[in-house]
Amino acid sequence: MLPRHNDPIAAIATAPGRGAVGIVRVSGKGVAPLVRALCGRDLKPREATYLPFRDAQGGPIDHGLALFFPAPHSYTGEDVLELQAHGGPVVLQLLLARCLEAAQDPREGHRSVLPGLRLAQPGEFTERAFLNDKIDLAQAEAIADLIDASTEAAARSASRSLSGAFSEEIHGLRDALVHLRMLVEATLDFPEEEIDFLQKADASGQLARLRGKLDQVLSRAHQGALLREGIKVVIAGQPNAGKSSLLNALAGAELAIVTPIAGTTRDKVQQTIQIEGVPLHVIDTAGLRESSDEVERIGIARAWDEIAAADAVLFLHDLTRMGEHDYLAADAAIAETLAQKLPRQVPVIDVWNKTDRAEPARMQEHGGREGSVALSARTGDGLDALRRRLLDVAGWQSAPEGLYLARARHVEALQAVAAHLQEAELQLAAQAAHLDLLAEELRLAQVSLNSITGEFSSDDLLGVIFSSFCIGK
Protein backbone atom coordinates (compact mmCIF):
# COMPACT_ATOMS: atom_id res chain seq x y z
CA MET A 1 0.00 0.00 0.00
CA LEU A 2 1.37 3.41 -0.99
CA PRO A 3 1.72 6.29 1.54
CA ARG A 4 -1.09 8.24 -0.15
CA HIS A 5 -3.51 5.43 0.74
CA ASN A 6 -3.28 6.50 4.39
CA ASP A 7 -4.44 10.06 3.66
CA PRO A 8 -8.08 10.96 4.34
CA ILE A 9 -9.75 12.03 1.09
CA ALA A 10 -12.74 14.13 0.05
CA ALA A 11 -14.56 14.74 -3.22
CA ILE A 12 -17.88 15.59 -4.82
CA ALA A 13 -19.36 12.15 -5.52
CA THR A 14 -22.10 13.16 -7.97
CA ALA A 15 -21.77 14.01 -11.64
CA PRO A 16 -20.79 17.56 -12.69
CA GLY A 17 -23.62 19.94 -13.46
CA ARG A 18 -26.90 20.87 -11.83
CA GLY A 19 -29.15 18.35 -10.11
CA ALA A 20 -31.74 17.98 -7.38
CA VAL A 21 -29.25 16.37 -5.00
CA GLY A 22 -25.46 16.42 -4.79
CA ILE A 23 -23.15 14.46 -2.49
CA VAL A 24 -19.83 15.34 -0.92
CA ARG A 25 -17.98 12.29 0.42
CA VAL A 26 -15.12 12.02 2.93
CA SER A 27 -13.26 8.79 3.68
CA GLY A 28 -10.38 7.99 6.01
CA LYS A 29 -9.37 6.89 9.48
CA GLY A 30 -10.69 8.90 12.41
CA VAL A 31 -13.32 10.94 10.57
CA ALA A 32 -15.54 11.31 13.67
CA PRO A 33 -13.91 14.62 14.81
CA LEU A 34 -14.62 16.11 11.38
CA VAL A 35 -18.25 14.99 11.68
CA ARG A 36 -18.56 16.99 14.91
CA ALA A 37 -16.80 20.00 13.39
CA LEU A 38 -19.07 20.08 10.34
CA CYS A 39 -22.37 19.00 11.88
CA GLY A 40 -21.96 20.37 15.41
CA ARG A 41 -22.85 16.97 16.87
CA ASP A 42 -22.18 13.26 16.69
CA LEU A 43 -24.25 11.26 14.21
CA LYS A 44 -25.84 7.90 14.72
CA PRO A 45 -24.15 5.32 12.47
CA ARG A 46 -25.89 4.73 9.14
CA GLU A 47 -28.81 7.01 10.02
CA ALA A 48 -29.66 10.08 7.93
CA THR A 49 -29.82 13.32 9.93
CA TYR A 50 -31.30 16.55 8.55
CA LEU A 51 -29.32 19.60 9.64
CA PRO A 52 -27.77 22.86 8.43
CA PHE A 53 -24.35 22.92 6.76
CA ARG A 54 -22.53 26.04 7.95
CA ASP A 55 -19.38 27.86 6.90
CA ALA A 56 -16.52 28.78 9.27
CA GLN A 57 -18.35 31.92 10.47
CA GLY A 58 -21.56 30.03 11.20
CA GLY A 59 -23.39 31.26 8.13
CA PRO A 60 -25.57 28.75 6.23
CA ILE A 61 -24.24 27.05 3.13
CA ASP A 62 -27.26 24.76 2.76
CA HIS A 63 -29.56 22.39 4.61
CA GLY A 64 -29.37 18.68 3.89
CA LEU A 65 -28.77 15.14 5.09
CA ALA A 66 -25.61 13.86 6.76
CA LEU A 67 -24.75 10.17 7.10
CA PHE A 68 -21.82 8.63 8.95
CA PHE A 69 -20.59 5.09 8.23
CA PRO A 70 -17.98 3.98 10.79
CA ALA A 71 -15.31 1.54 9.59
CA PRO A 72 -15.38 -1.20 8.50
CA HIS A 73 -19.07 -1.05 7.53
CA SER A 74 -18.75 1.41 4.67
CA TYR A 75 -18.10 1.49 0.93
CA THR A 76 -14.35 2.01 1.37
CA GLY A 77 -13.92 0.03 4.59
CA GLU A 78 -12.84 3.28 6.32
CA ASP A 79 -14.89 5.87 8.19
CA VAL A 80 -17.08 7.57 5.58
CA LEU A 81 -19.07 10.80 5.87
CA GLU A 82 -21.61 11.72 3.19
CA LEU A 83 -23.18 15.15 3.01
CA GLN A 84 -26.25 15.32 0.77
CA ALA A 85 -27.10 18.85 -0.27
CA HIS A 86 -28.88 20.54 -3.16
CA GLY A 87 -27.12 19.70 -6.39
CA GLY A 88 -25.88 23.07 -7.56
CA PRO A 89 -22.17 23.08 -8.49
CA VAL A 90 -21.43 26.22 -6.42
CA VAL A 91 -23.12 24.78 -3.32
CA LEU A 92 -21.18 21.53 -3.60
CA GLN A 93 -17.87 23.34 -4.13
CA LEU A 94 -18.53 25.47 -1.04
CA LEU A 95 -19.37 22.34 0.95
CA LEU A 96 -16.23 20.55 -0.25
CA ALA A 97 -14.09 23.59 0.56
CA ARG A 98 -15.66 23.69 4.03
CA CYS A 99 -14.71 20.02 4.61
CA LEU A 100 -11.08 20.75 3.71
CA GLU A 101 -11.07 23.92 5.81
CA ALA A 102 -12.65 22.28 8.88
CA ALA A 103 -10.17 19.41 8.72
CA GLN A 104 -7.32 21.86 9.33
CA ASP A 105 -8.96 23.61 12.30
CA PRO A 106 -6.86 23.02 15.44
CA ARG A 107 -8.30 21.06 18.34
CA GLU A 108 -7.00 20.86 21.88
CA GLY A 109 -3.29 20.14 21.78
CA HIS A 110 -3.01 22.19 18.52
CA ARG A 111 -3.62 19.17 16.28
CA SER A 112 -5.84 19.40 13.22
CA VAL A 113 -9.33 17.89 13.27
CA LEU A 114 -8.44 15.52 10.40
CA PRO A 115 -4.78 15.95 9.42
CA GLY A 116 -3.85 15.47 5.79
CA LEU A 117 -7.36 15.60 4.30
CA ARG A 118 -6.98 16.16 0.56
CA LEU A 119 -8.95 15.98 -2.66
CA ALA A 120 -9.42 12.43 -3.91
CA GLN A 121 -7.90 11.26 -7.16
CA PRO A 122 -10.10 9.61 -9.84
CA GLY A 123 -11.33 6.24 -8.63
CA GLU A 124 -9.64 6.54 -5.23
CA PHE A 125 -12.74 5.70 -3.17
CA THR A 126 -13.23 2.46 -5.11
CA GLU A 127 -9.49 1.77 -5.00
CA ARG A 128 -9.70 1.91 -1.21
CA ALA A 129 -12.65 -0.45 -1.23
CA PHE A 130 -10.43 -2.87 -3.15
CA LEU A 131 -7.40 -2.36 -0.93
CA ASN A 132 -9.53 -2.88 2.19
CA ASP A 133 -10.97 -6.15 0.83
CA LYS A 134 -14.51 -4.85 0.39
CA ILE A 135 -14.43 -5.87 -3.28
CA ASP A 136 -11.93 -7.56 -5.59
CA LEU A 137 -10.47 -6.03 -8.73
CA ALA A 138 -13.01 -7.56 -11.12
CA GLN A 139 -15.84 -6.14 -9.00
CA ALA A 140 -14.14 -2.75 -8.91
CA GLU A 141 -14.00 -2.70 -12.70
CA ALA A 142 -17.65 -3.74 -12.79
CA ILE A 143 -18.55 -0.54 -10.92
CA ALA A 144 -17.06 1.58 -13.70
CA ASP A 145 -18.70 -0.66 -16.31
CA LEU A 146 -22.10 -0.28 -14.62
CA ILE A 147 -21.73 3.51 -14.71
CA ASP A 148 -20.64 3.45 -18.37
CA ALA A 149 -23.16 0.82 -19.55
CA SER A 150 -24.83 1.93 -22.78
CA THR A 151 -27.39 -0.89 -23.02
CA GLU A 152 -29.73 -2.65 -20.63
CA ALA A 153 -27.95 -5.95 -21.29
CA ALA A 154 -24.58 -4.40 -20.44
CA ALA A 155 -25.96 -2.84 -17.24
CA ARG A 156 -27.47 -6.14 -16.06
CA SER A 157 -24.27 -8.03 -16.85
CA ALA A 158 -22.13 -5.43 -15.06
CA SER A 159 -24.42 -5.72 -12.05
CA ARG A 160 -23.88 -9.50 -12.00
CA SER A 161 -20.12 -8.95 -12.13
CA LEU A 162 -20.39 -6.45 -9.27
CA SER A 163 -22.33 -8.98 -7.19
CA GLY A 164 -19.39 -11.37 -7.60
CA ALA A 165 -20.64 -13.81 -10.26
CA PHE A 166 -17.50 -13.51 -12.38
CA SER A 167 -15.21 -13.54 -9.35
CA GLU A 168 -16.83 -16.74 -8.08
CA GLU A 169 -16.04 -18.43 -11.39
CA ILE A 170 -12.41 -17.32 -11.13
CA HIS A 171 -12.14 -18.45 -7.52
CA GLY A 172 -13.55 -21.85 -8.47
CA LEU A 173 -10.90 -22.24 -11.15
CA ARG A 174 -8.20 -21.09 -8.76
CA ASP A 175 -9.24 -23.53 -6.01
CA ALA A 176 -9.12 -26.47 -8.43
CA LEU A 177 -5.76 -25.28 -9.71
CA VAL A 178 -4.35 -24.90 -6.18
CA HIS A 179 -5.43 -28.44 -5.32
CA LEU A 180 -3.65 -29.78 -8.39
CA ARG A 181 -0.55 -27.74 -7.61
CA MET A 182 -0.54 -29.15 -4.09
CA LEU A 183 -0.32 -32.69 -5.46
CA VAL A 184 2.49 -31.83 -7.85
CA GLU A 185 4.47 -29.87 -5.24
CA ALA A 186 4.06 -32.73 -2.74
CA THR A 187 5.56 -35.16 -5.23
CA LEU A 188 8.48 -32.81 -5.86
CA ASP A 189 9.14 -32.14 -2.17
CA PHE A 190 8.60 -35.64 -0.80
CA PRO A 191 9.58 -38.17 -3.45
CA GLU A 192 10.36 -40.74 -0.75
CA GLU A 193 6.65 -40.90 0.08
CA GLU A 194 6.06 -42.34 -3.38
CA ILE A 195 2.91 -40.34 -3.87
CA ASP A 196 1.60 -41.60 -7.18
CA PHE A 197 -0.66 -38.64 -7.79
CA LEU A 198 -1.02 -39.48 -11.48
CA GLN A 199 -3.21 -42.46 -10.68
CA LYS A 200 -4.42 -42.19 -7.09
CA ALA A 201 -5.46 -38.54 -7.28
CA ASP A 202 -6.48 -38.70 -10.96
CA ALA A 203 -4.32 -35.65 -11.74
CA SER A 204 -4.88 -36.12 -15.45
CA GLY A 205 -8.63 -36.16 -14.94
CA GLN A 206 -8.44 -33.11 -12.67
CA LEU A 207 -6.49 -31.19 -15.26
CA ALA A 208 -8.93 -32.18 -18.02
CA ARG A 209 -11.90 -31.07 -15.92
CA LEU A 210 -10.12 -27.81 -15.09
CA ARG A 211 -9.54 -27.11 -18.78
CA GLY A 212 -13.18 -27.89 -19.56
CA LYS A 213 -14.39 -25.47 -16.90
CA LEU A 214 -11.91 -22.85 -18.11
CA ASP A 215 -13.27 -23.15 -21.65
CA GLN A 216 -16.77 -22.40 -20.35
CA VAL A 217 -15.60 -19.37 -18.37
CA LEU A 218 -13.51 -18.12 -21.29
CA SER A 219 -16.49 -18.40 -23.63
CA ARG A 220 -18.72 -16.39 -21.29
CA ALA A 221 -15.94 -13.87 -20.65
CA HIS A 222 -15.53 -13.37 -24.39
CA GLN A 223 -19.26 -12.75 -24.69
CA GLY A 224 -19.11 -10.35 -21.76
CA ALA A 225 -16.19 -8.45 -23.28
CA LEU A 226 -18.06 -8.23 -26.57
CA LEU A 227 -21.12 -6.87 -24.75
CA ARG A 228 -18.94 -4.25 -23.06
CA GLU A 229 -16.65 -3.18 -25.88
CA GLY A 230 -18.42 -4.19 -29.10
CA ILE A 231 -16.64 -4.32 -32.44
CA LYS A 232 -15.52 -1.77 -35.02
CA VAL A 233 -17.24 -2.24 -38.38
CA VAL A 234 -16.08 -0.25 -41.42
CA ILE A 235 -18.21 0.16 -44.55
CA ALA A 236 -15.97 0.19 -47.64
CA GLY A 237 -16.52 0.20 -51.38
CA GLN A 238 -16.56 2.34 -54.48
CA PRO A 239 -18.29 5.74 -54.64
CA ASN A 240 -22.08 5.63 -54.92
CA ALA A 241 -22.34 1.99 -53.82
CA GLY A 242 -24.66 3.14 -51.03
CA LYS A 243 -22.29 3.24 -48.06
CA SER A 244 -23.79 6.35 -46.49
CA SER A 245 -27.31 5.06 -47.12
CA LEU A 246 -26.39 1.81 -45.38
CA LEU A 247 -25.01 3.67 -42.35
CA ASN A 248 -28.20 5.74 -42.16
CA ALA A 249 -30.34 2.62 -42.49
CA LEU A 250 -28.46 0.77 -39.73
CA ALA A 251 -28.54 3.81 -37.44
CA GLY A 252 -32.15 4.67 -38.19
CA ALA A 253 -31.21 8.33 -38.70
CA GLU A 254 -29.89 10.62 -41.42
CA LEU A 255 -26.29 10.83 -40.21
CA ALA A 256 -24.42 10.93 -43.51
CA ILE A 257 -25.18 13.09 -46.54
CA VAL A 258 -26.52 11.04 -49.45
CA THR A 259 -26.40 12.39 -53.03
CA PRO A 260 -25.99 10.89 -56.52
CA ILE A 261 -22.66 12.76 -56.79
CA ALA A 262 -19.66 10.43 -56.52
CA GLY A 263 -17.24 11.40 -53.78
CA THR A 264 -19.82 13.12 -51.54
CA THR A 265 -18.35 11.50 -48.41
CA ARG A 266 -14.91 13.00 -47.83
CA ASP A 267 -14.28 11.97 -44.23
CA LYS A 268 -15.44 9.21 -41.92
CA VAL A 269 -18.85 9.31 -40.28
CA GLN A 270 -19.23 7.11 -37.21
CA GLN A 271 -22.22 5.88 -35.24
CA THR A 272 -22.60 3.25 -32.54
CA ILE A 273 -25.61 0.99 -33.00
CA GLN A 274 -26.88 -1.83 -30.81
CA ILE A 275 -27.86 -5.28 -31.98
CA GLU A 276 -29.22 -7.52 -29.23
CA GLY A 277 -27.47 -5.25 -26.74
CA VAL A 278 -24.08 -5.60 -28.47
CA PRO A 279 -22.54 -2.22 -29.43
CA LEU A 280 -21.26 -2.02 -33.01
CA HIS A 281 -19.20 1.03 -33.90
CA VAL A 282 -20.07 1.48 -37.58
CA ILE A 283 -17.92 3.80 -39.72
CA ASP A 284 -18.83 5.12 -43.17
CA THR A 285 -15.78 6.02 -45.23
CA ALA A 286 -14.95 7.82 -48.47
CA GLY A 287 -15.47 5.87 -51.69
CA LEU A 288 -12.34 3.99 -52.77
CA ARG A 289 -11.07 5.08 -56.17
CA GLU A 290 -8.26 6.96 -57.90
CA SER A 291 -8.82 10.71 -57.55
CA SER A 292 -7.07 13.93 -58.52
CA ASP A 293 -8.96 15.90 -55.84
CA GLU A 294 -6.56 16.53 -52.94
CA VAL A 295 -9.32 16.61 -50.30
CA GLU A 296 -10.87 13.39 -51.59
CA ARG A 297 -7.44 11.70 -51.67
CA ILE A 298 -6.97 12.53 -47.99
CA GLY A 299 -10.41 11.09 -47.26
CA ILE A 300 -9.56 7.90 -49.13
CA ALA A 301 -6.27 7.55 -47.23
CA ARG A 302 -8.17 7.91 -43.97
CA ALA A 303 -10.65 5.31 -45.18
CA TRP A 304 -7.83 2.78 -45.63
CA ASP A 305 -6.53 3.65 -42.15
CA GLU A 306 -9.95 2.88 -40.67
CA ILE A 307 -10.20 -0.35 -42.68
CA ALA A 308 -6.78 -1.49 -41.42
CA ALA A 309 -7.96 -1.06 -37.80
CA ALA A 310 -11.38 -2.70 -38.28
CA ASP A 311 -12.72 -5.78 -36.53
CA ALA A 312 -14.94 -6.45 -39.55
CA VAL A 313 -15.36 -4.86 -42.99
CA LEU A 314 -18.57 -4.53 -45.00
CA PHE A 315 -17.46 -4.52 -48.65
CA LEU A 316 -20.39 -2.88 -50.40
CA HIS A 317 -21.17 -3.68 -54.04
CA ASP A 318 -23.67 -1.99 -56.35
CA LEU A 319 -25.80 -4.70 -57.96
CA THR A 320 -27.01 -2.30 -60.66
CA ARG A 321 -23.43 -1.94 -62.00
CA MET A 322 -22.38 -5.59 -62.04
CA GLY A 323 -22.39 -5.60 -65.83
CA GLU A 324 -19.86 -2.76 -66.15
CA HIS A 325 -16.31 -3.95 -66.85
CA ASP A 326 -14.61 -0.94 -65.24
CA TYR A 327 -16.72 -1.27 -62.10
CA LEU A 328 -15.92 -4.97 -61.75
CA ALA A 329 -12.21 -4.32 -62.25
CA ALA A 330 -12.23 -1.64 -59.56
CA ASP A 331 -14.06 -3.97 -57.18
CA ALA A 332 -11.47 -6.67 -57.85
CA ALA A 333 -8.64 -4.22 -57.12
CA ILE A 334 -10.26 -3.22 -53.82
CA ALA A 335 -10.71 -6.88 -52.88
CA GLU A 336 -7.04 -7.55 -53.60
CA THR A 337 -5.94 -4.59 -51.47
CA LEU A 338 -8.22 -5.68 -48.64
CA ALA A 339 -6.61 -9.12 -48.68
CA GLN A 340 -3.17 -7.50 -48.46
CA LYS A 341 -3.95 -4.94 -45.75
CA LEU A 342 -6.19 -6.92 -43.39
CA PRO A 343 -5.08 -9.63 -40.98
CA ARG A 344 -6.42 -13.02 -41.93
CA GLN A 345 -8.73 -13.19 -38.91
CA VAL A 346 -10.60 -9.97 -39.83
CA PRO A 347 -13.76 -10.95 -41.75
CA VAL A 348 -14.81 -9.18 -44.93
CA ILE A 349 -18.54 -9.44 -45.59
CA ASP A 350 -19.66 -8.92 -49.18
CA VAL A 351 -22.83 -6.83 -49.14
CA TRP A 352 -24.77 -6.60 -52.39
CA ASN A 353 -26.78 -3.39 -52.31
CA LYS A 354 -29.73 -2.02 -54.34
CA THR A 355 -31.77 -5.22 -54.58
CA ASP A 356 -34.82 -3.00 -55.17
CA ARG A 357 -33.34 -1.81 -58.49
CA ALA A 358 -31.20 -4.72 -59.66
CA GLU A 359 -32.10 -7.24 -62.34
CA PRO A 360 -33.21 -10.62 -60.90
CA ALA A 361 -30.36 -12.37 -62.73
CA ARG A 362 -27.79 -10.15 -61.03
CA MET A 363 -29.35 -10.81 -57.64
CA GLN A 364 -29.27 -14.55 -58.22
CA GLU A 365 -25.66 -14.48 -59.44
CA HIS A 366 -24.19 -12.38 -56.62
CA GLY A 367 -26.69 -12.04 -53.78
CA GLY A 368 -26.90 -15.75 -53.07
CA ARG A 369 -23.18 -16.30 -52.45
CA GLU A 370 -22.32 -18.03 -49.21
CA GLY A 371 -21.50 -15.63 -46.40
CA SER A 372 -22.68 -12.58 -48.34
CA VAL A 373 -25.78 -10.47 -47.77
CA ALA A 374 -28.11 -8.97 -50.37
CA LEU A 375 -30.12 -5.93 -49.30
CA SER A 376 -31.57 -2.58 -50.16
CA ALA A 377 -30.28 0.25 -47.99
CA ARG A 378 -33.09 2.42 -49.38
CA THR A 379 -36.02 0.16 -48.48
CA GLY A 380 -34.45 -1.71 -45.56
CA ASP A 381 -35.04 -5.11 -47.13
CA GLY A 382 -32.27 -7.51 -45.97
CA LEU A 383 -31.03 -5.35 -43.06
CA ASP A 384 -32.04 -7.97 -40.49
CA ALA A 385 -29.91 -10.57 -42.30
CA LEU A 386 -26.95 -8.17 -42.19
CA ARG A 387 -27.42 -7.56 -38.47
CA ARG A 388 -27.46 -11.31 -37.86
CA ARG A 389 -24.35 -11.76 -39.99
CA LEU A 390 -22.52 -9.05 -38.03
CA LEU A 391 -23.33 -10.80 -34.76
CA ASP A 392 -22.10 -14.07 -36.21
CA VAL A 393 -18.72 -12.71 -37.29
CA ALA A 394 -18.36 -10.96 -33.92
CA GLY A 395 -18.75 -14.33 -32.23
CA TRP A 396 -21.90 -13.36 -30.37
CA GLN A 397 -24.25 -16.07 -29.22
CA SER A 398 -27.68 -15.58 -27.71
CA ALA A 399 -26.96 -14.11 -24.30
CA PRO A 400 -26.67 -17.03 -21.89
CA GLU A 401 -28.39 -16.92 -18.52
CA GLY A 402 -26.28 -15.16 -15.94
CA LEU A 403 -23.87 -13.51 -18.40
CA TYR A 404 -21.39 -11.25 -16.64
CA LEU A 405 -19.51 -8.32 -18.09
CA ALA A 406 -15.80 -8.81 -18.72
CA ARG A 407 -12.94 -6.79 -20.14
CA ALA A 408 -10.35 -7.47 -22.80
CA ARG A 409 -7.71 -7.90 -20.11
CA HIS A 410 -9.82 -10.62 -18.46
CA VAL A 411 -10.08 -12.51 -21.75
CA GLU A 412 -6.32 -12.16 -22.32
CA ALA A 413 -5.60 -13.45 -18.80
CA LEU A 414 -7.89 -16.46 -19.30
CA GLN A 415 -6.27 -17.19 -22.65
CA ALA A 416 -2.89 -17.14 -20.89
CA VAL A 417 -4.26 -19.61 -18.33
CA ALA A 418 -5.46 -21.86 -21.17
CA ALA A 419 -2.00 -21.78 -22.79
CA HIS A 420 -0.29 -22.71 -19.50
CA LEU A 421 -2.74 -25.56 -18.86
CA GLN A 422 -2.23 -26.87 -22.38
CA GLU A 423 1.52 -26.94 -21.77
CA ALA A 424 0.90 -28.56 -18.37
CA GLU A 425 -0.96 -31.40 -20.09
CA LEU A 426 2.07 -32.03 -22.28
CA GLN A 427 4.34 -32.10 -19.23
CA LEU A 428 1.92 -34.37 -17.38
CA ALA A 429 1.95 -36.79 -20.28
CA ALA A 430 5.74 -37.00 -19.86
CA GLN A 431 5.11 -37.92 -16.18
CA ALA A 432 7.92 -37.87 -13.64
CA ALA A 433 10.63 -36.71 -16.04
CA HIS A 434 9.26 -33.14 -16.16
CA LEU A 435 7.29 -32.61 -12.94
CA ASP A 436 9.21 -29.42 -12.16
CA LEU A 437 8.10 -27.95 -15.51
CA LEU A 438 4.55 -29.08 -14.83
CA ALA A 439 4.62 -27.33 -11.45
CA GLU A 440 5.88 -24.12 -13.07
CA GLU A 441 3.13 -24.11 -15.71
CA LEU A 442 0.49 -24.54 -13.02
CA ARG A 443 2.05 -21.71 -11.01
CA LEU A 444 2.00 -19.38 -14.00
CA ALA A 445 -1.61 -20.30 -14.68
CA GLN A 446 -2.51 -19.31 -11.12
CA VAL A 447 -0.66 -16.00 -11.46
CA SER A 448 -2.75 -15.19 -14.55
CA LEU A 449 -5.97 -16.07 -12.70
CA ASN A 450 -4.99 -13.95 -9.71
CA SER A 451 -4.39 -10.94 -11.95
CA ILE A 452 -8.12 -10.90 -12.79
CA THR A 453 -9.33 -10.49 -9.22
CA GLY A 454 -6.27 -8.50 -8.12
CA GLU A 455 -4.98 -10.95 -5.56
CA PHE A 456 -1.62 -10.30 -7.14
CA SER A 457 -1.40 -7.06 -9.10
CA SER A 458 1.28 -4.49 -9.80
CA ASP A 459 0.79 -0.88 -8.73
CA ASP A 460 1.03 0.08 -12.41
CA LEU A 461 -1.99 -2.08 -13.27
CA LEU A 462 -4.01 -0.60 -10.41
CA GLY A 463 -3.09 2.90 -11.51
CA VAL A 464 -4.33 2.29 -15.05
CA ILE A 465 -7.59 0.72 -13.92
CA PHE A 466 -8.64 3.25 -11.28
CA SER A 467 -7.51 6.33 -13.19
CA SER A 468 -10.35 5.68 -15.66
CA PHE A 469 -12.94 6.20 -12.87
CA CYS A 470 -14.63 9.52 -12.22
CA ILE A 471 -13.54 11.62 -9.24
CA GLY A 472 -15.71 10.84 -6.21
CA LYS A 473 -15.97 7.15 -7.12
UniProtKB/TrEMBL annotation:
- Record-annotated residues binding Mg(2+)? S244, T265
List the keywords (alphabetical): Cytoplasm, GTP-binding, Hydrolase, Magnesium, Metal-binding, Nucleotide-binding, Potassium, tRNA processing
Provide a Gene Ontology MF annotation, just one.
metal ion binding
Residues that bind (6S)-5-formyl-5,6,7,8-tetrahydrofolate: R25, E82, K134, K473
Query: Which cofactors does this gene product need?
Result: K(+)
**Pfam family of this protein, just one?**
MMR_HSR1
Q: Which PROSITE patterns match?
A: G_TRME (PS51709)
Amino acids binding K(+): N240, T259, I261, T264
- Report the InterPro entries cross-referenced here: G_TrmE, GTP-bd, GTP-bd_TrmE_N, GTPase_MnmE, MnmE_dom2, MnmE_helical, P-loop_NTPase, Small_GTP-bd
Please give the chief subcellular localization of this protein. Answer: cytoplasm
According to the UniProt record, one GO cellular component term is: cytosol
Per the UniProt entry, the Enzyme Commission number(s) are 3.6.-.-
Q: Where in the cell is it found?
A: Cytoplasm
Q: How cofactor binds (record note)?
A: Binds 1 potassium ion per subunit.
The residues that the entry says bind GTP are 240-245, 259-265, 284-287, 376-378
The source's domain of life comes to Bacteria
Function of the protein: Exhibits a very high intrinsic GTPase hydrolysis rate. Involved in the addition of a carboxymethylaminomethyl (cmnm) group at the wobble position (U34) of certain tRNAs, forming tRNA-cmnm(5)s(2)U34.
HAMAP family according to UniProt: GTPase_MnmE
UniProt name for this protein: tRNA modification GTPase MnmE
